[in-house]
Amino acid sequence: EVPLVESGGDLVQAGGSLRLSCATSGFRFDDYAIGWYRQAPGKEREGVSCISSSDDSPYYAESVKGRFTISSDNAKNTVYLEMNSLKPEDTAKYYCTAGLNGYLGGCYYFKNGYDRDYWGQGTQVTVSS
After folding, report:
1. Distance (Å, rounded) from C-alpha 25 to C-alpha 38?
2. How far apart are CA 97 and CA 44, in angstroms?
3. For 1-129, where are the alpha helices, taking DSSP H only?
4. Which of 79, 83, 88, 125 could cross-link 22 (Cys pair, CB 3.0–4.6 Å)?
5. CA-CA distance, 79 to 72, in Å (whole number)?
6. Tens-place pLDDT, residues 58-97
7. Measured between alpha carbons, how far is 6 from 86 in angstroms, rounded to an integer?
8. How far is it, in rounded angstroms, from Cα 23 to Cα 2?
9. Distance (Å, rounded) from C-alpha 113 to C-alpha 129?
10. Distance between CA atoms of 6 and 10, rounded to whole angstroms?
């Protein structure tokens, strides 16, 4: 059983929208922070967004604030990343990750580059100009 399975990546025109999904299994959903990274060829990996039941609010990178929204469906153990007003610079492979919540919360560890416990296989998002 694969712990994290992403879907929803596609080719879209600039200004368009996509919704990525991350279906989780095999671990207790509420105990983990679920975060999205992205990586484009030749660029550093970027932490895009994260959500955790241990935190008051989700985390967003400055580059996506106001355009991306992360949400979770606890009944389905699934996290969604709604991406609007997409730009060519959003083109990347998007990875869903899970990391155990700690005493500093959930997404603190994601934001600060701590190792993640689980990684998905990634889903490609391509934004054409």
Report:
1. 21
2. 16
3. 107-111
4. 79
5. 4
6. 999 999 999 999 999 999 999 999 999 999 999 999 999 9
7. 19
8. 10
9. 31
10. 12
Q: Which two tokens stand for residue 54?
A: 């241990």
3-state secondary structure of 27: coil
Which residue in 54, 18, 40, 13 sits closest to 95, CA to CA? Answer: 40
- Beta bridge partner(s), residue 60: 49
Asked whether residue 2 carries a pLDDT value surpassing 90, the answer given is no
Which pLDDT belongs to residue 48? Answer: 98
The sign one gets for the Cα dihedral 78, 84, 88, 90 is: negative
pLDDT recorded at residue 1: 73
Q: Tell me if 95 sits within 8 A of 36, measured CB to CB.
A: yes
The DSSP output letter for 56 is S
Q: 108 — phi, psi (to 5°)?
A: -55, -45
28-49 tens-digit pLDDT: 999 999 999 999 999 999 999 9
Dihedral (Cα; 66, 17, 80, 123), 10-degree rounding: -120
d(CA 97, CA 47): 10
Location of structure tokens 């869903």: 96
